[in-house]
Amino acid sequence: MTGDVLWFNGRFTTTDERLIGVEDRGFQFGDAIYEVFKFLRHRPIFLREHFHRLETGLRELEIPNPWDERSFVDVMRALLDKTETADGIVYIQVTRGEARRAHFWPEGIEPTALAYSRAFVFPDAAKKERGIKIITTPDIRWHHCDVKSVNLLANAFAKKKAQRAGVDEAILLNDGLVREGASSSFFAVRSGRIITHPLDENILPGVVRDRVIELALREAKIRVDERPLREQELFDLDEAFITSTTQGVMPVTEIDGRIIGNSRCGEITSALQRLFDADELASANSSGR
Ligand code: PDD
């Protein structure tokens, strides 16, 4: 097995090396924050936005940030320089660190920080036109979904349920409201307007979500209502799509077996896809190698 290039606590190795201590709080308690960013031709995309979300999450959990923006960018560039594959993703995790197991943590422990790069097959043009089918499932997560913590058990179960149903994503419902996907943000289109959940503790502030809203307002001149969609509204939509770092803007053509729009990528979704793909490339080009 040849491992992926891994930066671990200040040095380079590969994911073949066994490194995490049994008493690491990331392993014992899920006491950690993670990030995922995309790279194209070895160039990082929306790197600063991912750093800022990581920084906010670490502050929320009172974990010291091992990086400032400068050293973070330097480490990620060095990682991509050592990476063979041109296009892929980088997974980053910062845990509170290692300490004798106890729920309360001792002050002053050193965080464990790691980042590895990996090849990833992003959706091609055919998939982006065809779109995906999704199901709904109850949101059983905690009350801090705005923090990108590694506690993903509820998300993993929702995703497994989707896989068993033969679809690509599960969207999470809570109090009769649509929150987000198990690993994506959710958008609806109705009467020429876009509807998506507002930023609060119920959803992750998606980097792609943010870009898509900006592009819709500034470039496409489409109105965006940031409000939770009611469950009943799901079946009276013109278009729907999800967004994420790995999927970009991905049309949703079926929800719980019911067809959305004309069961193909809708016009507004298609326009946002084009705008977002261009925006992503511009971010890669401006970041340099
Ligand atoms: N997931 N909501 C959840 C719960 C997510 O896990 C993700 C991303 C998003 C979209 O965020 P962004 O646009 O910043 O990728 C929304 C990543 C990709 C993952 O867990 O692999």
Average pLDDT, rounded to a whole number, is 97
Bound molecules: N-(5'-phosphopyridoxyl)-D-alanine
User: What is the CATH class of the largest domain?
Assistant: Alpha Beta
Low-confidence stretches: none
Number of strands: 16
Shape: globular
What is the straight-line distance between the termini? 28 Å
* Helix/strand class: alpha+beta
CATH level-3 fold name of the largest domain: D-amino Acid Aminotransferase, Chain A, domain 2
Please tell me about this protein's structure.
There is one protein chain. This protein is an alpha+beta fold. It folds into 2 domains: 5-119, 2-Layer Sandwich (D-amino Acid Aminotransferase, Chain A, domain 1), CATH 3.30.470.10; 125-285, D-amino Acid Aminotransferase, Chain A, domain 2. It contains 7 helices and 16 strands. The longest helix is centred in the last third of the chain and has 21 residues, at 267-287. The radius of gyration is 19 Å and the shape is globular. The model has no long low-confidence stretch (mean pLDDT 97). It binds N-(5'-phosphopyridoxyl)-D-alanine. N-(5'-phosphopyridoxyl)-D-alanine (PDD) binds at residues 36, 155, 180, 183-185, 204, 206-209, 243-246. The site of N-(5'-phosphopyridoxyl)-D-alanine has 15 residues, from helix 6 and strand 14.
